[in-house]
Amino acid sequence: MRKWNLVFILFVFIFSSAACQQDTIEPYEEETIGGTDQQETESENAIDEESNKSNQEITSNKETGESNTTYNEEIDRSGYALLRPELGSKRQFQENGMAILSEEVIAENKEYLQLIVTLGGSKTTEVYRWTPNEITLVYQDHYQEGDEKGILENFSGTDFVERYVGEDANWEVIGEDVSVEIDGKDMKVLQVYQESDEVVGHTTKKTRYFAKDNGLVFERIEVVGDQGYISEITIDLQ
């Protein structure tokens, strides 16, 4: 009888020891697993945040049109600014079916727009103050090396060569939202007109059309007098 009691006591001791070991191990295993899950979650959250940041930066760049030729400024595209040609656009103009000049929009900010104009083998850099309230040619000069990288970052123009619309404009608005056909396409345009005596002994009559997202789409120049002539150029929309 005492032998069985001894066996029973030994069995209880072994069982209790095993249970204690199990109780000791389980919390450690749970803590270790829990810590690994937390580290993995934190790592995944960090990756998601970095990805979201990158996506936001990409979206921001697309929305602002940021590039090496524009300077990350929000542009108010209302009023006359609706007529701005798009950044990066390259436009060909033709006369009597023949290409004669091209314009490339290479830089813009909230106030100015820069073009490179090519006529034959000659290039000209032009800057317009193009806002909701005016369209003004403020700079026009022979192309200089490096102009294609943009000159607007530190540009400050006060004088103007031509002011098509806005306060003290030297052109007259003769039509707004006028329906016309340009290169086989119906468009709504702003029409401006100017008369001058820039050619001695002659009257020079100029008409320009501006269209939404395209800028200049048509120009007519008529020189009245002896040996006068008419020239019409139209944007090529094909």
TrEMBL record:
Sequence segments annotated as region (Disordered): 30-73
Leader sequence segment: 1-21
Compositionally biased tracts (Polar residues): 53-72
Record field: compositional bias (Acidic residues): 39-49
UniProt superkingdom: Bacteria
PROSITE patterns: PROKAR_LIPOPROTEIN
Presence of keyword Hydrolase: no
Keyword terms: Signal
Protein name: DUF4362 domain-containing protein
Organism of this sequence: Bacillus coahuilensis p1.1.43
